[in-house]
Amino acid sequence: MNEEGKHVVMIGGGLGGLTTGALLALEGYAVTILEKNRIIGGGLQCFHRRGVIFETGMHTLGGFMPGHNLNRICAYLGILDKLDIRPTDADCIDAVTFGTGGETYRLPRGKEAFTEYLARLFPGQAGNLRRYMKAMWALSEEVDLFYLRPDEGSMLRAHSDEFLLAADAFIARYITDPRLAELLAYMNPMYGGVAGHTPAFVHALINVLYINGSAMFVDGSQQMADALADVILRAGGSIHAGDPVARIVVEDRQVQRVVTQQGKEYAGDWYISDIHPCALLPLLPEKAFLKSYRDRLCEIPNSYSSFSVYIKFKQGAHRPFANHPCYFQEEHGYVWQLCDYDEESFPRGFMYLTPPTRHQGPWADRMTVNCPMPFSAVSRWADSVTGHRPPDYKAWKEHTLQRVLDKLERVCPGLRADIDFCFASTPLTIRDYYGTKEGALYGYNRDCQNMALSQLPVATKVRNLLLTGQNLNLHGICGVPLTAIETAEALVGRGTIVRKINEAYERKNL
What we know:
By secondary structure, the chain is of the alpha/beta class. Helices cover 32% and strands 19% of the residues.
């Protein structure tokens, strides 16, 4: 491709858009990022409240251990040394508490340590557990890109019979103790797990990623967005934030330009969308895509959302800092139903953590709590927008916040007395802030009952319009950059970037 064909206009400046843009910038492309919010980053965005930094989405990280996929990708992009990342404790990457019996499991890092810890607690399941762990790692090996091997193609290519088994059925194939089976599904809130629908390979990839070693950003994830942006800017690209794209002009199945709300126009050779496909459709002429394709994009079920609580502790409160996420489930038997909403029982479970700060001492200064919640819980207020919510919504939101604090007190006694201030966000907040349909945390659901529906290709029928982001293959801090590689390689050639990432890693180690 000649230089005249190397200008890319990116619609959306989230993790997918920034990573795809940074990869293409290193390939000599001129990248223009258009982000609707004033702050770039999508799920990497942080915000300040009364001078305190809070995360919006990227709370826990996987893949940053030496030699692992995110570590290699960030090293190749030249941003690894710019990221302030703190590994979770080796003896406890996650703590899982069940309110019914009051038991807490402190799960250690690494396949062998994780396996032996649970084998000691469930000796009758030791053999089954080892077979399950072996099978889970084998599933992860079937996804070449996860290990930064040249990808042979679609998730729908030939795989083992367990690859598209439902995740709950996959666990049940090996584990006969219901308590252990439930414990092994504790990461459900990390990928929107739904019984009978979430594929086993998604469960495997997320678990392998975090068991291998998890981490947290120190003082927020905005640093990664800024580092990726710097790669683009240093290569001569540009970033325009706070002016949403209003219209995409398409002629003869080819994008000609995009027009923003402020009337600015941007033209390029290639256009890449990092926004939810259902947010992309209204920007395009109706005839840009076939009706069947538009209908398909609208019919794919979305993952659930979250009710999140942000807490700032009083100075001198001496609330202990935990160097790992904590999961709480009120009762046994509901690990696959945490997203089901009933106002009287909500929340049945949640994940909470105390994000680290620079010079972190033994005491936490803040806490974030994430409770799975479907969009149906707030659908009655769907027509409202941020800053203009009706009084009954605000009353419901405050009531729900107090319910979360009541249940948080069960695992953190005396917490209310230590709170300086706290506030909450809902699926409506996430919908309006991220621009994602129904406030879906993880984009489209991956459904093993109909993978053909929920698996989108990078290319579209508009010849110079590609897709990237969490709605394609995998979500999250690891899945989105891997998809970014696939999108970038659609322009530079399959395997090109993966090869360069691995060559750079080998040179460094030599």
